[in-house]
Amino acid sequence: MMIPATACSVYIGFCTKRTKAPENILFLFAIVAFVMSIQWVSFLSNFVVDLLALLGLMLSLPKPLLGLTLLAWGNCLGDLNANVAMTKKGFGEMALTGCMAGPVFNVFCGLGASCVLMLIGDPKTPIPFTLFEEDGSLNTHAVLPFGLICA
User: Fold this and answer.
1) CA triplet 47, 112, 69: central angle to 5 degrees?
2) Contact 68, 145 (CB under 8 A)
3) What's the helix, strand, coil split of the chain in %, to 5?
4) Which domain holds residue 122?
5) Exposure winner among 17, 29, 62, 67, fewest CB in 10 A?
6) Where does a domain end: 60, 80, 111?
């Protein structure tokens, strides 16, 4: 990657004016920047999930608890920022609607998509997440999510 990067930087150095970007390579840079941003988001997401799994391992917390609390809170931070920005701009009713409609939409789409996929899926495939194991014993990792869903 060093050789193509050096060739591109030399080309940019000779063909770029202070007031105008190089037109014939600008589209390539936009594509490369988009792919690189996707890679960074993927890397950082995996890093956060791995850190969360390590925290659960160190504190002996079950993975469902971590997934239902910390990851869910982190998933809502973007909505929080958008709602606070709307409120600061004077659109309090819009922010309040976003607080209610966003999670409702996510639940409806999530449940709807999973139900549709389960209905059109192979009926012979067992449901992988059950409250009881095959031998009839209680699945201890499923008790907490089941209780939170029922509450």
Assistant:
1) 35
2) yes
3) 75, 0, 25
4) 62-151
5) 17
6) 60
HSE, CB side, 13 Å, CA atoms: give it for residue 94.
10
Q: Are residues 132 and 92 in the same domain?
A: yes
For the chain, the domain total comes to 2
Q: Where does the pLDDT of residue 116 fall: very low under 50, low under 70, confident under 90, or very high at 90 and above? A: low
What amino acid is encoded at 92 in this protein? G
Tens digits of residue pLDDT in 79-98: 888 889 999 999 989 988 88
47 lies in the same domain as 7: yes
Pull the structure tokens for residue 77: 């931070």
CB atoms within 10 A of CB 83: 20
Cα distances (Å, whole numbers) of residue 110 to 21, 86, 114: 44, 26, 6
Measured distance CA(122)–CA(112) in Å, rounded: 17
Structure tokens at 107: 């639940």
For residues 94 and 71, what is the distance between their CA atoms, to the nearest angstrom?
A: 25
Handedness of CA 149, 112, 78, 44 (dihedral sign): positive
Q: Are 55 and 61 in contact (CB under 8 A)?
A: yes
